[in-house]
Design goal:
homodimer, 220 residues, alpha/beta, 7-stranded parallel sheet, 7 helices
């Protein structure tokens, strides 16, 4: 099982809730009732930490195996490069009750320090799956399961407000520069564009936020 | 008049459109038909640049005086700390035809390299005003001009979908940790919350994107 590090009290609190913490490392007293605590010197802490400012709590966490049964609202990320954007989208997916986030192999690392911080702890509760093959295979298999796959793009697409809500939907958001690849756009059941005027340019995490807000899962 | 630096072809192209470039500095040939070009060595370029990767074009730009006549859609930022969030919100405001963005004195620097890059050039076209006094005075004066001021918050607020569109609206978004200050929440004509379930946490630029998309100005 793979391991990764997280820093700071808030993230560790979320990780403890999700039961993924193996060890807590600290140079002070640990505020959590947790058995596996290792006390180290300030110098060791500084060496291990990725942060410029002082950190007093680091935790070793285990990657969790994802078992996905519900696929009503999915986010598919095609080559998102920026760790901040990636983490923010995982956080937003959690807020709007999405069931999972799929990452293409070209996406930034989910366990990058910046990505983890941007999720604000959502990655401990949200299934995030890195797809080993091309996304085409994933899209085809989701379509076989009856998922309506929607690609976001500026060309030849339906305005967001006119896209109907289906019971099972997956939204593809693309790379910061290139957007969603042409082959995925062609495969999708629908193409959607966010209505804008003048400056046709949105940050990918903002675009994803607008789409996920619009199609969020409502409590029945 | 104050000056600031921008880097890279795309940003300089946008700045030239807005007529704010004074001088272009390059260690190669300048791709733009522009008179004031200074040729420097690679070493000088490296010294001036804020970027880790090599940059071949830097421009000296002048800050533009803002003269605001139209106030139908406004964004007010109360202590937004992260330059990336700030720049992204300016970019989004441009995409959704907002008339201006007001920044409290506690906000990040608009002319920070990271902020400028995150605007993707929108800051050359979008009026952005740094408010010297407290935001309370701005809000009071906007209200006198008939602007409906809406604070975004999680407490005691109307769901976004139930907020009516008015002809003149201003939306206050707050600091990443604290949100909108209590005094501004109390002053606002309305309080709005983005409907979420479970994880009550959104990145401020994502929240602003959802709000601005919903109340964007439509071409009449």
């Amino acid at each position: 099982m793979k391991r990764f590090l997280i820093e700071g009290e808030h993230l560790i609190e979320e990780a403890l809730k999700a039961n993924v913490v193996e060890t807590i490392i600290t140079d002070t007293t640990c505020p959590f009732a947790f058995e596996e605590v290792v006390l180290v010197s300030e110098a060791v802490m500084k060496k291990v930490s990725q942060n410029v400012s002082k950190v007093h709590l680091i935790a070793v966490c285990k990657e969790v195996e994802v078992d996905l049964t519900k696929k009503e609202r999915l986010l598919i990320l095609d080559g998102v490069q920026d760790p901040g954007n990636l983490g923010t989208m995982v956080r937003t997916a959690m807020a709007f009750q999405f069931d999972a986030v799929y990452l293409s192999n070209q996406c930034a690392d989910l366990y990058n320090d910046k990505t983890i911080r941007s999720t604000q702890g959502a990655l401990f509760h949200m299934p995030v799956i890195r797809v080993k093959d091309e996304l085409d295979c994933l899209v085809a298999s989701l379509q076989e399961e009856g998922v309506n796959v929607v690609a976001t793009t500026l060309d030849d697409a339906k305005p967001l407000k006119e896209v109907e809500t289906c019971s099972k939907m997956a939204f593809i958001l693309g790379n910061e520069g290139q957007g969603v690849s042409k082959s995925l756009q062609a495969m999708a059941n629908q193409r959607l564009r966010i209505e804008m005027q003048g400056f046709e340019s949105l940050n990918v995490a903002v675009a994803a936020g607008i789409v996920m807000y619009t199609f969020q899962e409502r409590v029945k």
